[in-house]
């Protein structure tokens, strides 16, 4: 029986070929844009999550300033600061394997005859810290070495910085001027894929102290949890200790302790909102496509009035008639959906390719079976729902009147 | 003749009732979303432009950091910063009338037993006060403004005074602790419309320097060119002075000097890009609507085959037949467009009302008559373009075959 419905619906669609194709085109375009957008935004979320977890779920960062928006970058905007003293406190918290205090300042960097203003990171480079740095992905060395405790005026450069930030590439041994003082490049980091880290320039803490006069001030503290300890708990302990040291009550902190978890969470939240907005707009075209199906189905019902009359006359029930037309609408939906999904994924891949060429490795297209099945199922539902009202009209037709239709 | 085409087309559309409505619905949804998005986008641009206007577009802003006021790397960080010395240089630069500097940082506020963090802006109280207060959209609502020689007094933003920052309203005469030091509230400001701005507080420059312990630094310097001078030229002069003083060559600046005009342009560029992306996506629905019209027209031609045969038989030209169907398609587009424009304007107004209630009165929608006329014209064109192919098919029908249908 079902098979008959199928073949009847299919025959109908074939009969008015051009119309069927045009109707499907509407769904194809709608689904393609929705699929492309979902694929790209899901892909981007995956990449970011990946990178944040490369930082390690055992990483904790402490920055000055209250509120979830504080980051190493905005630390200067707060009158409260972090100091080496705080780094020492954090080191002593139970469960902390190590803590590194970092200063970040913007400065002019000159290479050959090009000058740019950029963020300069000041890091301690004693032996113990270097051991720990080797475990942080964006501090892993690709070429050369870490600055040693003895060369004050040495630089560790991020991958992109060395390759295409300046006109000429930078190699180990290249000399650069920071704030007017000459430095020598001793190491180049591995590429991470995130422009902020790939474009960084790192100098020893002592040099930073000398150049920028920061003294004991630190912009942020990076800490790692000892294995076996729960990162969130350790973060709480750090908060407690620092609060006690500063004589603050809970909720009054002028610093922020963040784990990779809450960074992921806040980023995901923001991305989620943008996603919903863009996809919502793309979904409007899907709505219009559905209306197109409804329109086509009304026409189809009209054209087949006589046939409907005949079918009913020889014993077809109302439900059977309805099924035939629902199938017809559903097939339009699924066919459009399948083609649309394929096109949408291709568009996603093309955008990924174009973005990668422009240096935005963050934009990737994700193709999960969930997305594909979901899109096809959804298009079938769109089709069926759009076809519901015309199908009901067909089912309710009086056979006598239908037979008389010219 | 033309009116006949019109009447014939209209009759067909009316006869097909529901299906005509559904076809127009497609166009209507597409146009409504495009119109709503454009009006919101234009409104945003307008309100930002007018905020800049009140600043005085001849104002010049000097900030530390080499990337310009909008680049991420320059916000608030720096081994490069501006000082009183820079302010003096600016005042002396050729073409500068008045110049003044501001200090701002986030500080810890204690009110009663609550602790929160807000921006404190240190304001000069000399002749430069006026240009800086314009720049901050400064309008006093209650109490009095800061004066030269004021110590330990503070004026607060709208939201702080109206209970949206601390649990209670902060009133004139109340005491606030800023970074541990006690200040008395002497005035509060009118609402600016931007929640961030409305939570700012203001003290005299000298007081700000005292509590932050930064006697020399300045976060921003504002300069007003002399009447008749081109702001861009004056900005260049200031740049030259500062460059020479710091021993930097051109292109190496660790500060940025921009006129309000230039700032406005960069903001508009960003807004423009965002708008285009969003509009592009909304326009896809318009495309699908157009396909719907094409589909409907093919059906219409099919259903009227016999009529076309008769018309040709009694002397209608191919050209005439095509006009009839083009009109049909165009009318479908136009009516869908009219309803769509009305709906789009409605959505825009709704968005404006909702965001005003949420405190963001910066989001206004702007309905230019160009937008309305443009959209109507566009929907008509979409209709005609979609109907072109079917109309041509109709025109080329062989009358003999058509009559036999």
Please tell me about this protein's structure.
- The complex is a heterodimer of chains A (406) and B (405).
- Chain A is an alpha+beta fold and 406 residues long.
- Chain A has helices at residues 2-15, 17-54, 84-92, 127-133, 159-165, 195-198, 205-212, 231-246, 260-303, 305-313, 318-357, 369-395, 399-404, and strands at residues 59-64, 82-83, 96-111, 114-123, 141-144, 154-157, 175-178, 181-189, 201-204, 217-218, 220-225, 255-259.
- The longest helix of chain A is centred in the C-terminal third of the chain and has 44 residues, at 260-303.
- A 6-stranded mixed barrel of chain A has the order 3-4-9-6-8-7. In chain A, strands 2-10 form a two-stranded antiparallel sheet.
- Chain A has 13 helices and 12 strands.
- Helices cover 56% and strands 18% of the residues of chain A.
- Chain B is of the alpha+beta class.
- In chain B, 55% of the residues lie in helices and 18% in strands.
- Chain B has helices at residues 2-15, 17-55, 84-92, 129-135, 158-161, 205-212, 231-246, 260-303, 305-313, 318-357, 369-395, 399-403, and strands at residues 60-64, 82-83, 96-111, 114-123, 140-143, 153-156, 175-178, 181-189, 201-204, 217-218, 220-225, 255-259.
- In chain B, the strands form 2 sheets. Chain B has a 6-stranded mixed barrel with strand order 3-4-9-6-8-7. A two-stranded antiparallel sheet of chain B has the order 2-10.
- In chain B, helix 2 (17-55) crosses helix 10 (318-357).
- Chain B is elongated, with a radius of gyration of 31 Å.
- The chains are: A alpha+beta (406), B alpha+beta (405).
- At the A-B interface, helix 2, strand 3, strand 4 and helix 9 of A face helix 2, strand 3 and helix 8 of B.
């Amino acid at each position: 029986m079902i098979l008959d419905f199928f073949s009847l619906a299919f025959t109908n669609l074939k009969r008015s070929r051009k119309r069927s194709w045009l109707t499907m085109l509407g769904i194809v375009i709608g689904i393609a844009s929705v699929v492309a957008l979902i694929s790209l935004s899901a892909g981007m979320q995956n990449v970011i999550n990946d990178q944040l977890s490369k930082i390690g779920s055992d990483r904790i960062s402490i920055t000055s300033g209250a509120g979830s928006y504080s980051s190493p970058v905005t630390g200067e905007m707060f009158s409260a600061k972090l100091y080496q003293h705080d780094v020492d406190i954090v080191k002593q918290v139970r469960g902390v394997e190590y803590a590194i205090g970092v200063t970040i300042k913007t400065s002019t960097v000159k290479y050959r005859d090009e000058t740019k203003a950029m963020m300069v990171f000041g890091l301690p480079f004693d032996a113990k810290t270097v051991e720990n740095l080797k475990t942080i992905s964006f501090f892993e060395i690709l070429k050369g070495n870490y600055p040693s405790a003895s060369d004050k005026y040495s630089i560790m450069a991020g991958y992109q910085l060395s390759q295409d930030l300046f006109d000429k590439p930078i190699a180990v041994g290249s000399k650069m001027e920071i704030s007017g003082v000459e430095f020598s490049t001793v190491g180049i980091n591995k590429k991470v894929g995130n422009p902020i880290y790939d474009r960084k320039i790192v100098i020893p803490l002592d040099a930073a102290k000398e150049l920028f006069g920061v003294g004991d001030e630190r912009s942020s503290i990076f800490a790692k949890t000892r294995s076996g300890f729960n990162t969130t708990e350790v973060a709480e302990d750090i908060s407690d200790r620092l609060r006690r040291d500063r004589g603050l009550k809970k909720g009054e902190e002028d610093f922020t302790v963040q784990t990779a978890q809450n960074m992921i969470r806040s980023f995901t939240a923001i991305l989620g909102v943008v996603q919903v907005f863009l996809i919502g707009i793309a979904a409007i075209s899907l709505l219009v496509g559905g209306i197109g199906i409804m329109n086509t189905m009304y026409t189809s019902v009209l054209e087949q009035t006589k046939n409907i009359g005949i079918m009913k006359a020889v014993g077809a029930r109302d439900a059977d008639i309805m099924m035939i037309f629902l199938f017809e609408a559903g097939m339009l939906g699924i066919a459009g959906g399948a083609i649309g999904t394929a096109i949408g994924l291709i568009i996603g891949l093309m955008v990924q390719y174009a973005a990668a060429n422009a240096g935005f490795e963050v934009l990737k297209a994700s193709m999960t079976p969930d997305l594909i099945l979901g899109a096809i199922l959804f298009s079938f539902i769109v089709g069926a729902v759009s076809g519901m009202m015309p199908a009901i009209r067909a089912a309710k037709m009086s056979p006598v009147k239908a037979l008389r239709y010219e | 003749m033309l009116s006949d085409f019109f009447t014939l087309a209209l009759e067909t559309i009316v006869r097909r009732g529901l299906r005509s409505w559904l076809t127009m619905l497609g166009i209507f949804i597409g146009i409504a979303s495009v119109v709503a998005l454009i009006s919101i986008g234009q409104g945003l641009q307008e309100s930002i432009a007018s905020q800049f206007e009140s600043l005085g577009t001849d104002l010049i802003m000097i900030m530390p950091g080499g990337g310009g006021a909008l680049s991420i790397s320059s916000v608030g960080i720096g081994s490069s910063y501006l000082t009183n010395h820079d302010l003096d240089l600016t005042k002396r630069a050729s073409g500068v009338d008045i110049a003044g500097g501001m200090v701002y940082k986030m500080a810890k506020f204690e009110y009663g037993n609550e602790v929160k963090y807000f921006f404190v802006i240190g304001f000069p109280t000399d002749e430069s006060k006026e240009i800086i207060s314009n720049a901050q959209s400064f309008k006093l609502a209650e109490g009095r403004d800061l004066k030269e020689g004021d110590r330990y007094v503070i004026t607060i933003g709208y939201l702080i005074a109206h209970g949206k920052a601390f649990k209670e309203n902060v009133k004139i005469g109340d005491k606030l602790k800023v970074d541990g030091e006690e200040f008395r509230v002497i005035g509060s400001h009118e609402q600016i419309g931007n929640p961030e701005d409305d939570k700012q507080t203001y003290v005299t420059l000298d007081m700000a320097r005292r509590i932050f312990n930064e006697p020399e630094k300045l976060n921003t310097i504002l300069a007003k060119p002399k009447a008749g001078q081109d702001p861009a030229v004056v900005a260049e002069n200031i740049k030259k002075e500062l460059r020479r003083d710091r021993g930097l060559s051109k292109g190496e600046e660790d500060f940025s000097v921009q006129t309000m005009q230039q700032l406005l342009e960069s903001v508009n560029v960003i807004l423009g890009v965002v708008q285009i992306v969003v509009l592009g996506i909304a326009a896809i629905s318009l495309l699908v609507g157009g396909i719907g019209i094409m589909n409907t027209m093919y059906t219409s031609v099919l259903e009227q085959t016999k009529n076309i045969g008769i018309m040709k038989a009694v002397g209608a030209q191919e050209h005439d037949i095509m006009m009839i169907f083009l009109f049909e398609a165009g009318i479908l587009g136009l009516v869908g467009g009219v309803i769509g424009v009305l709906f789009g304007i409605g959505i825009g107004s709704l968005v404006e009302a909702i965001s005003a209630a949420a405190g963001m009165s910066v989001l206004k929608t702007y309905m230019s008559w160009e937008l309305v006329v443009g959209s109507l014209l566009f929907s008509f064109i979409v209709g005609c373009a979609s109907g072109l192919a079917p109309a041509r098919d109709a025109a080329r029908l062989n009358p003999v075959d058509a009559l036999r249908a």
